């Protein structure tokens, strides 16, 4: 074992992608194991690797961690991306939870029935432009700083950057009414660790395609 965190999930975004983003933003290299069959998944459960019979699974610092939120809290705390005190941590948590609600819609979108896709896409656009992005536009404008919390790069910034790019893939002009977020996106894109993660050949996964959806349904079928 190399000492690098080891990530077990499918070869696609899903619930592992925000974890990949956070590790990459912290400048941490990691290894990945991809599930391709139901048998691999069942074996992880049988061997006691998955506390709640769910992936993502991240092996880090001698722990076998499950539950996306717990994994990300640990990584953010370990790599100093979780604020300087409890108040800053609470703000980061609030922002992360809000972004997660938006990302959940994007996560489920590829599994929408064909006749619901257009409606679901409209919902993503409406929520992003009317509920979620205005919050962050206002925060950045009010305090006039580069980052969301404490004028320091944090987990909340990473999560927001991931969400902006994910929504833009579906709604390319989504930031047209958000000048602060446009500046934020440019600054984040130029941070060395994020810039590296956005290059071709990085561990960042492409948007889910039909093959990914098929693999998810095959691996997790009841």
Tell me about this structure.
With 222 residues, the protein is an alpha+beta fold. It folds into 2 domains: 6-79 and 198-212, Glutaredoxin (3-Layer(aba) Sandwich); 86-191, Glutathione S-transferase Yfyf (Class Pi), Chain A, domain 2 (Up-down Bundle). The protein is 55% helix and 7% strand. A 4-stranded mixed beta sheet has the order 2-1-3-4, covered by helices on one side. Helix 1 (17-25) crosses helix 6 (155-170) and helix 5 (117-143) crosses helix 7 (179-189). The two termini are 32 Å apart. The model has no long low-confidence stretch (mean pLDDT 94).
Q: Helices, strands, pairings?
A:
Layout: E1 6-9, H1 17-25, E2 31-34, H2 38-46, E3 57-60, E4 63-66, H3 68-78, H4 86-108, H5 117-143, H6 155-170, H7 179-189, H8 192-197, H9 210-219
Parallel strand pairs: 1-2
Antiparallel strand pairs: 1-3, 3-4
Helix pairs in contact: 1-3, 1-6, 4-5, 4-6, 5-7, 6-7
What are the salient characteristics of this protein?
55% helix, single chain, 222 residues, four-stranded mixed sheet, globular, Glutaredoxin, alpha+beta, 2 domains
Output the number of helix runs.
9
Q: Which consecutive residue ranges, at least 5 long each, have pLDDT under 50? A: none
Summarize model confidence as the mean pLDDT.
Answer: 94
Cross-sheet strand order for the largest sheet = 2-1-3-4
Q: Provide the β-strand percentage band.
A: 5-15%
Count of spatially separate domains: 2
Text of the CATH class of the largest domain: Mainly Alpha
Number of strands: 4
- What is the CA–CA distance across the termini? 32 Å
Helix content: 40-55%
Rg computed from alpha carbons, rounded to a whole number of angstroms: 18 Å
CATH architecture of the largest domain: Up-down Bundle
Do you know the CATH topology of the largest domain?
Answer: Glutathione S-transferase Yfyf (Class Pi), Chain A, domain 2
SSE string? EHEHEEHHHHHHH
Family: Belongs to the GST superfamily. Alpha family.
InterPro entries: Glutathione-S-Trfase_C-like (IPR010987), Glutathione-S-Trfase_C_sf (IPR036282), Glutathione_S-Trfase (IPR040079), Glutathione_S-Trfase_N (IPR004045), GST_alpha (IPR003080), GST_C (IPR004046), GST_superfamily (IPR050213), Thioredoxin-like_sf (IPR036249)
Protein name: glutathione transferase
Domain GST C-terminal: 85-209
């Amino acid at each position: 074992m190399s000492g690098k965190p080891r990530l077990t999930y499918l070869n696609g975004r899903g619930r592992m992608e925000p974890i990949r983003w956070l590790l990459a933003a912290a400048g941490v290299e990691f290894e990945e194991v991809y599930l391709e069959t139901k048998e691999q998944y069942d074996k992880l459960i049988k061997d006691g690797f998955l506390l709640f019979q769910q992936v993502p699974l991240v092996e880090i610092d001698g722990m076998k961690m499950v539950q996306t939120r717990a994994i990300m809290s640990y990584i953010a705390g370990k790599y100093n991306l979780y604020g300087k005190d409890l108040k800053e941590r609470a703000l980061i948590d609030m922002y992360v939870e809000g972004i997660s609600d938006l990302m959940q819609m994007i996560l489920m979108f590829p599994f929408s029935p064909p006749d619901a896709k257009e409606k679901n896409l409209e919902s993503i656009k409406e929520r992003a432009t009317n509920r979620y992005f205005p919050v962050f536009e206002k925060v950045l404008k009010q305090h006039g700083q580069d980052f969301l919390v404490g004028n320091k790069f944090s987990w909340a910034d990473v999560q927001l950057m991931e969400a902006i790019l994910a929504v833009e893939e579906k709604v390319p002009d989504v930031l047209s009414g958000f000048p602060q977020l446009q500046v934020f996106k440019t600054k984040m894109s130029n941070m060395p660790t994020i810039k590296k993660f956005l290059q071709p050949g990085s561990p960042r996964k492409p948007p889910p395609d039909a093959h990914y959806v098929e693999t998810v349904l095959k691996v997790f079928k009841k």
